[in-house]
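Before any further analysis, we paired sequence with structure tokens, yielding the entry below:
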Amino acid sequence: MELDTSHEPVHEAGQEPAPAGAGLGVLEKAMGLLNIVSAARRPMTFTELLRASGLPRATLHRILATLVREGLLRHGDAGRGFQLGFRLLELAHEVWSDFDLRLAAQDELARLRDAVGETVQLAVASGTQALVVAGEEPGSAAPAASALGTRGALTASAAGLAILCGLPPPRQEALLVALGRADDAALRHELGLARARGYALSPGREPDGRVAVAAPVFDVEGRAVGAVAVVAPAERLDAARAHALSAPLIKAARTVTHNAGGQAMSLAPGAAPEEPLAADWRSVGPARALLGEGPVWSPRDLTLYWVDILAPALHEERVGGEPVAVLAAPRPADTNAALPGAAGAGPGEALPSSAGTEHRLGTMISMAVPRASGGLLVATPAGLMGWSGPEAPMTPVAHPEAGRAGQRYNDGKCDRLGRLWVGSMDLGAAPHRGHLYRVDPDGRWARMDSGFTVPNGLGFSPDDRRMYFTDTDRRTVYEYDFDLTDGAISARRPLLVLDAREGKPDGLTVDAEGCLWVAVWDGWHVARYSPRGELLQRLRLPVPRPTSCCFGGARLQTLYVTSARVRLDAATLATAPLSGALFALDLPGVRGLPETPFAG
């Protein structure tokens, strides 16, 4: 291998070029070696480098040792030779995070400023701090300069939290240790919510006394390297408005990510379809969830339970009979602020007799199912827990995901013998990290399948011979052969695969005829499919993001549907102000199947 001499030094006019080899410093020699290794198609041995570089043996040995020690080169085992080291990737990562990121963000920051009418900033990670490197002020054609260079701990600002929540768990953990916040449970809870939402709120006042909402910007490996933030006085940016600004903010952050060559994705639903709304829909109660999920009917309690994963909150809707007085923590006005439009009933429809209660549990909750022994079994990031009321402590039942940082549970349902089947996923929906578990009444569990991204709706055929399970990210509802006696599944195959224009399958339930009712995220509807996967009926709803459904009421002839408003922009919310509501649809001639409580 010959040394590439095509990059000779350039000399100013009147200067005499130095003799060949003269004046070569250690840096030039080291750079020469890096260039040689970079040009090679395979690792190079010491002998090959000695021949290619022309350096004395002792000099080459000394420089190679330094380059390896600094991580610029690495030396493989079994005589594989020298290769470029990972420190070069880290250095490139830092350059990408700062200089190129500012260039990629320049136009998008101005666009976002004009869209929201507030200050916008770009911050990057700098060790344990967030550093503001660019900004735009409303009413100004020139970039803002007053905040440039402002830095603070990653835990002190919305931008810092957005960066932290988008980091791989090991890196996040190392930074929390370095910041002295490794034991801060409240901070970890907020980071989990921010990662699931896709944006972070100020932990208090920002360093300049204002408040902010921020979304992470990612590099080519999907790691957060910066954040775009909307910053405003607290009187103009309460939590309700911050949540409402999340859609244009995330869109801007993802555009910056895309412009800089990182990973980005679409988040907007399609326009409302022209087909008429379902005839007998009504909204139940005033709650407007960020991410309503997991409705389940308990005939024992005459109550529908459902959760808002991102508030986070547990909802009880007692339908029919005398409502039960339940004490609940005071309801904050932040995440469920009322939106314009009807609040509690569809046009011309009367509300059922109902009494809704919301419980703030102090932790993310993604699922709640009745428990045969009383109370509920709820899914939290700390495990599956028994819940018997707002005044009683939760008790651990099982935690299959223990030891897997950055994971949470999602949808779950019990089979006819009272075993819980529940999916897990990465908090930020990283691909293929989800599992499907079976949890037995005694708390023992087994991992039944793997490789899911957003595991969702579960259901069982009336004859208990098939189980259905959704991966929303793949737009697929799977079917398994199911053995109720052994609690075993086999022969997974796709039953439904939705086209991108239809939306994404989310939660589901099964009726007495064995037909599947599927809530379609970004599809504005719930749909009924035959056991063979044939579309039988589509019920259009006034919201783009139905999330899950179940049958309830005394005759199991009312289909309850949860929905979401997370990351919807202002235009969509104006079109669909009931986003996040709980809906009820009366379905004469259709009956659901009673859900089995967890037997533990």
User: Anything to note?
Assistant: Confidence is low (pLDDT under 50) at residues 1-23, 321-353. The chain has three domains: 26-85, 89-259, 281-330+351-586.
